[in-house]
Amino acid sequence: MKKLQTITLGCSKNKVDTEHILSHLDGHYEIVPEGEDIPVDVILLNTCGFIGDAKEESVQAVLDAVDRKSRGLAQQVVVFGCLSQRYMNELPDLIPEVDAWFGAREFDPVIRFLGAEPDEAKRTSRFLTTPSHYAYLKISEGCDRRCSYCAIPFIRGAHKSVPIEKLVEEAENLADKGVKELIIIAQDTTYYGLDLYRRRALAELLQKLSEVDGIEWIRIHYSYPAAFPEDVLEQMANNPKVCRYMDIPLQHISDKVLDNMHRHVTGAWTRELISKMREKVPGVVLRTTMIVGHPGEGKRDFNELLEFAKEARFERLGAFKYSEEEGTYGAENFKD
Predict the structure, then answer these.
(1) If pLDDT is split at 50, 70 and 90, which confidence band does 125 have?
(2) 194 Cβ neighbours under 8 A, 6+ residues apart
(3) Can you tell me the distance from the alpha carbon of 23 to that of 16, in angstroms, rounded to the nearest whole number?
(4) Closest to 137 in 3D by CA, of 165, 170, 94
């Protein structure tokens, strides 16, 4: 049997995409774990194109894969994901040694190119690349937000929720594989359901997932703060399977910077939300991210952000410098 090795860059949402593709290829190929340095027939590379550093990492990974091919350690290099979606017109000419390029929105062409046929029965199946006790569950694709710094909407397209029954079926399949913890992910988990059900349905989804036999913990990531659905806090406070943990990227606290970012919240509203979370869910663990250096941020705004970080006492906080991304509102409208 031919050997296929995947390399997945970027966020956990990409990991889920890779696992869905592998569920169709398992049985057609021997799947070689990422990181094993052995000769393979195919290197399947899932790229990230979100910010500058991620794009550089993805390009280098493609070049490394092409180098392995040139040394006879791979027969084919196949690339898909956000980087190739974003630069599909440029990359094939820049790196012609790659055998095939695909985007980030349709995976059936990847499966067919690699000699398998997409199978509707496998749409909720996964070939796990995480340790068997946990898995990510991607509940929607794309994003309808238009944050001024973010390229995701024109890479991944409009927000599209996965129906609850499909997600429950996928969770059941994961539980059958021994998964105990589900980590809920999307571009924006709190937006879930608005397109399908005309309401925010994350709390309803959490309840349905908690009823799956074998699932013991459910953890929420990527929660957008604007119009946060408070029934999610009720699930966290009262459902023993829903972890008292919230990943909520706030990005800033200064009203001026939040307005420039098109975040649709104010500093006061953000403080009130954090206070409400801690009050309604005692012991909640909060993780957030902040962007520094966004156009328009001055010393006063930055100092306000520092004071807020001390005041809010986040259990986990990541900070990233602003990356100007072509095609975004920020790149087009905030010029020095």
Answers:
(1) very high
(2) 159, 161, 200
(3) 11
(4) 170
**Count of CB atoms situated within 10 Å of the CB of 149:** 23
In contact, 134 and 183? CB cutoff 8 Å: yes
Q: What percent of the chain has pLDDT over 90?
A: 97
The structure's pTM equals 0.95
Q: Report the alpha-carbon distance of residue 106 to residue 83 in Å, rounded.
A: 14
What is the mean pLDDT of the segment spanning 90-97?
96
Distances (CA, A) of 53 to 35, 65, 144, 279: 21, 18, 24, 38
Q: Report pLDDT for 336.
A: 54
Q: What are phi and psi of 313, to 5 degrees?
A: 55, 55
Strands 140-141 and 160-161: antiparallel
Count of alpha carbons within 13 angstroms of residue 134, beta-carbon side: 10
Per-residue pLDDT tens for 252-294? Answer: 999 999 999 999 999 999 999 999 999 999 999 999 999 999 9
Q: What is the pLDDT of residues 212-257, one digit of tens each?
A: 999 999 999 999 999 999 999 999 999 999 999 999 999 999 999 9
The total of other beta-carbon atoms located within 10 Å of residue 109's CB is 13
Residues listed for the chain: 336
Q: What is the mean pLDDT of the chain?
A: 96
Beta strand extents in 128-260 (DSSP E only): 134-138, 140-141, 160-161, 181-185, 217-220, 242-247
Q: Which residues contact 76 (CB under 8 A, 6 or more apart)?
A: 41, 42, 43, 69, 99, 100
Is residue 4 classed as helix, strand or coil in its secondary structure? strand
CB atoms within 10 A of CB 211: 10
3-class SS of residue 42: strand
Here the tokens at position 147 are 């944050």
Closest to 212 measured CA to CA, from 237, 182, 233: 182
Question: Which tokens in the block code for residue 105?
Answer: 């929105």
Q: Name the residue type at position 248.
A: I
Q: How many CB atoms lie within 10 A of CB 271?
A: 14
